[in-house]
Amino acid sequence: MRPLLIATLSLLASLAWAEEPWGTVDLQAAKPLHDKACTGCHIRMYGGDGSKMYTRDGSMLSNKLELLQRVAACSSQVSSGWFPEDESNVAAWLNKHYYHFDK
Ligand code: HEC
Questions:
Q1: How many A from CA of 95 to the centre of ligand 1?
Q2: Residue 91 CA: which ligand 1 atom is closest?
Q3: Distance in angstroms (rounded) separating the CA atoms of residues 3 and 60
Q4: For FRET with 43, which of 15, 51, 55, 64 sits at 20 to 30 Å CA-CA?
Q5: Does the Cβ of 74 fall within 6 Å of ligand 1?
Q6: What backbone phi and psi angles, to 5 degrees, belong to 70?
Q7: What CA–CA distance (Å, rounded) separates 31 from 79?
């Protein structure tokens, strides 16, 4: 019985991975990272708290993977010094609050 259980669990894990390009995340860690490194330009462009960047018409993003890639691109552009897990945390946090992509 046990090998079957393990096979089933690892299949489920790989399916979950396919849907979540960022894997396991820490959403609590995301907001301070985001607010420190990511609001400057976006506020300059859109005013307010800059979040209109994420809700604007004609957003360049259509799924989680593109969101993660965009976060990574902006992060490296500004030499944030973030690790990949920081990018994952912020991408997942942006998805939860603004983008709401299912996949
Ligand atoms: C140096 C200025 C600058 C900083 C700092 C910056 N961004 Fe951006 N960001 C941009 C610009 C410019 C665009 C729009 C690019 C375009 O329209 O082609 C953008 C677009 C985005 C988008 C896509 C918006 C959409 O839905 O179309 C996301 C997500 C994003 N940035 C995340 C981040 C994150 C996360 C950080 C912090 C690591 C960050 N940005 C820091 C300039 C910046």
A1: 14
A2: 35
A3: 44
A4: 64
A5: yes
A6: -70, -40
A7: 18
- Residues 6 or more apart whose CB falls under 8 angstroms from that of 53 comprise 42, 45, 46
Query: What is the distance between the alpha carbons of residues 68 and 71, in angstroms, rounded to a whole number?
Result: 5
Confidence band, pLDDT 50/70/90 cuts, at residue 46: very high
| pLDDT at res. 39 | 96
Is the predicted pLDDT of residue 2 greater than 60, yes or no?
yes
Q: Is the dihedral of CA 96, 60, 69, 44 positive or negative?
A: negative
Report pLDDT digits (tens) over 49-93.
999 999 999 999 999 999 999 999 999 999 999 999 999 999 999
Q: Distance (Å, rounded) from C-alpha 39 to C-alpha 31?
A: 11
For residue 36, count other CB atoms closer than 10 A to its CB.
10
Which residue, judged by its Cα, is nearest atom 3 of ligand 1? 41
pLDDT value of residue 11: 54
